[in-house]
Amino acid sequence: MIKDYRVSIAIPLCLLILSIVLIGVNGIPKSIDITGGTEITIKVNKDIDITPLKEMLDGKATVKKLKSADGYYIVIRCKNEYVDFVKQKVMEFFHVDSLSKLDYSEKTIGATLSKKFFEEGFKAVGFAFLFMAIVVYLYFRSPVPSGAIILSALSDIIMALGGMSLLKIELSSATIAALLMVIGYSVDSDILLTTRVLKRLTKSFDETVKEAMKTGLTMTLTTITAMLILLIVVKLFIPVAEILANIATVLILALVADILNTWLLNAGILKYYITEYKKSK
């Protein structure tokens, strides 16, 4: 099944490096949960062209239009120092002298609170990853299989972040929670593979991997299918629920990465461990 473990390891590692480059070059957009700022939401009953509004705001705010069953929502996000300017331009665009005449709502998050969200969110991801790594090492008691699982899980997270950078998905408290879930999903399939390989040494390596793959891919593809259905439903029927769409997309990206990292990267390292490393000891 895996003819050359070097090729099997190289493919996901190249994608990992590409993800790191994407993150470094493009960065990852951040929501106001992370950066702080103001979000203004205006409900309108008909579809309107928001291009003139974007031009009026002159790059000081982002504007997007979301469709829902009961109308359209125009969402404007800006830094807190531009709020007065943005409100003035919104009134000019809608030809009103007061925002109270619009179906209008506003959410503001201060810089201190948003910074705290960001710090605590990444602490949660970091601690979850650290404790996962400790448990994996204590269970397998061997640096190579344990290291392969940890590297695979780390690659899943970085590739998911790379996908977020490519697709311009905002880093927010919701997507950080999705990254936390990624750790559990990725470790699940990696432990399945590693346990099967190390405990069934009487069978050939390829045969054991095929058996593990049947179970592992079934679990992963089932979850991907569920997330795809959620994403389609949100996009078609409730696009205003953007948070759900972002969570589903991040999980899909991570699970696709997990297929590559488990069945190429981890399996390749395990083949090296079984066929070369252990024999040299």
TrEMBL record:
Say where the protein is mainly found. membrane
Q: Which residues cross the membrane?
A: 7-28, 121-140, 147-167, 173-195, 216-238, 244-274
| Domain spans labelled Protein export membrane protein SecD/SecF C-terminal | 94-274
Q: Which Gene Ontology cellular-component terms appear in the entry? A: plasma membrane
What are the protein's UniProt keywords? Cell membrane, Membrane, Protein transport, Translocation, Transmembrane, Transmembrane helix, Transport
Entry's Pfam families? Answer: Sec_GG, SecD_SecF_C
GO annotation (BP), single: protein targeting
Cellular location of this protein? Answer: Cell membrane
Keyword Cell membrane assigned to the entry: answer is: yes
Membrane-topology descriptor:
Multi-pass membrane protein
Family the UniProt entry places it in? Belongs to the SecD/SecF family. SecF subfamily.
Q: What is its quaternary makeup?
A: Part of the protein translocation apparatus. Forms a complex with SecD.
Protein task: Involved in protein export.
Protein name from the UniProt record: Protein-export membrane protein SecF
Q: Record the organism.
A: Methanocaldococcus vulcanius (strain ATCC 700851 / DSM 12094 / M7) (Methanococcus vulcanius)
